[in-house]
């Protein structure tokens, strides 16, 4: 048998062995004390994670562009073709019913009215000289009708406020040539309200119902969210061309819409909003992004979709 190396054991260990102290000491322990509570900590974290995956939920949103519109807004249009002589109002100005908004060049109409006035005065003299002259009396009646028509034509060359309100979106300038029906400016009534038209993906239509939460974020005002509720939903899924027609020619081309769209509307609670600590006004045509919450499900079913079929879960 090989002789043990003298340097294999420490001298103290050999001396203790020779003295007969073989039952003293303890088993060699390679695990530190913190591994025990660390095991229970990891177990607790795992249980908490499973509970969160089972009970926690995630929401699915239908998102799309949105536009702020003004209800009861009146567009004042040109009734006749002509050249603008002067614009007598400016955006934000308060006007009363009948106030002059825009005037057109009326040199021809004034000349015609002055001519008829002179002829009417001469014809009145002729009737007074010979009241029995039936031809003179008939001519007088005709001239009076012509002058009334000339006065009406002159009045048509002046655009007046159809009701009281605030001038908005003046689109013309002095010297501009207008055609009949062309928009001159917009007039916002005192009782008008602001609404939001949201253009959401068409495939979300079956999931949309009245009262769903709708969040609006205006372009240029990040995180200034407006929490609203869906009020009306379009019965049909329409294309981009129909959406632009619905929005109107003034802003239809500026809204980026693609694919099938369902129109959703809601009212804004006030005429102003708060962004970065400042109170700002809404304006017709402001754009942003709208998100409607359409579905929610547990995190576990989201991560493992196959569990839906196993548990017969169809989603909410």
Topology of this structure?
Blueprint: H1 11-18, H2 34-55, E1 57-70, E2 73-77, E3 82-87, E4 94-95, E5 100-104, H3 107-129, H4 134-156, E6 158-160, E7 165-168, E8 177-178, E9 183-188, E10 194-201, E11 213-218, E12 225-229, E13 232-233, H5 240-247, E14 261-267, E15 272-275, E16 278-281, E17 287-298, H6 299-303, H7 306-311
Antiparallel strand pairs: 1-10, 1-17, 2-9, 3-5, 3-8, 4-7, 5-6, 7-9, 10-14, 11-12, 11-17, 13-14, 15-16
Helix pairs in contact: 3-4
Summarize the structure.
The protein folds into two domains: 135 residues, Efflux pump adaptor protein, beta barrel domain (Elongation Factor Tu (Ef-tu), domain 3, Beta Barrel), CATH 2.40.30; 115 residues, Beta Barrel (OB fold (Dihydrolipoamide Acetyltransferase, E2P)). It contains seven helices and 17 strands. A seven-stranded antiparallel beta sheet has the order 12-11-17-1-10-14-13.
The total count of helices amounts to: 7
Order of helices and strands: HHEEEEEHHEEEEEEEEHEEEEHH
In percent, how much strand structure appears in the residues?
A: 25-35%
Terminus-to-terminus distance: 81 Å
Number of domains: 2
What is the SS-derived class?
alpha+beta
Q: Residue-averaged pLDDT, rounded?
A: 81
Oligomer state equals single chain
- The percentage helix is 25-40%
Measured on Cα atoms, how large is the radius of gyration? 42 Å
Kindly identify the CATH topology of the largest domain: Elongation Factor Tu (Ef-tu), domain 3
CATH superfamily descriptor of the largest domain? Efflux pump adaptor protein, beta barrel domain
How many beta-strand segments?
17
Indicate the CATH class of the largest domain: Mainly Beta
- List the uncertain runs: none
């Amino acid at each position: 048998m090989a002789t043990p190396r003298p340097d294999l054991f420490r001298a103290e260990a050999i001396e203790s062995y020779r003295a007969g102290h073989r039952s003293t000491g303890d088993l060699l322990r390679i695990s530190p004390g913190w591994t025990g509570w660390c095991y229970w900590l990891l177990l607790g974290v795992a249980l908490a994670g499973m509970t969160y995956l089972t009970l926690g939920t995630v929401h699915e949103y239908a998102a799309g562009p949105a536009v702020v519109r003004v209800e009861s807004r009146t567009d004042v249009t040109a009734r006749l073709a002509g050249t603008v002589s002067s614009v007598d109002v400016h955006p934000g100005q308060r006007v009363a019913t009948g106030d002059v908004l825009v005037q057109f060049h009326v040199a021809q109409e004034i000349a015609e009215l002055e001519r008829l006035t002179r002829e009417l005065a001469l014809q009145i003299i002729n009737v007074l000289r010979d009241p029995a002259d039936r031809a003179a009396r008939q001519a007088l009646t005709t001239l009076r009708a012509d002058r009334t028509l000339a006065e009406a034509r002159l009045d048509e060359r002046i655009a007046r406020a159809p009701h009281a309100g605030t001038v908005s979106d003046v689109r013309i300038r002095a010297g501009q040539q207008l055609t009949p029906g062309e928009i001159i400016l917009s007039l916002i009534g005192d009782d008008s309200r602001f609404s939001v038209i949201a253009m959401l993906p068409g495939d979300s239509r079956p999931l949309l119902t009245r009262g769903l939460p709708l969040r609006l974020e205006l372009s240029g005002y990040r995180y200034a969210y407006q929490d609203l509720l869906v009020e009306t939903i379009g019965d049909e899924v329409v294309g981009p061309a129909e959406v632009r027609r619905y929005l109107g020619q003034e802003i239809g081309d500026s809204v980026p819409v693609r694919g099938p769209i369902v129109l959703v509307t809601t009212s804004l609670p006030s005429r102003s909003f708060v962004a970065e600590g400042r109170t700002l006004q809404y304006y017709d045509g402001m754009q942003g992004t709208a998100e409607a919450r359409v579905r929610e499900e547990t995190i576990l079913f989201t991560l493992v979709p196959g569990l839906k079929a196993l548990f017969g879960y169809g989603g909410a």
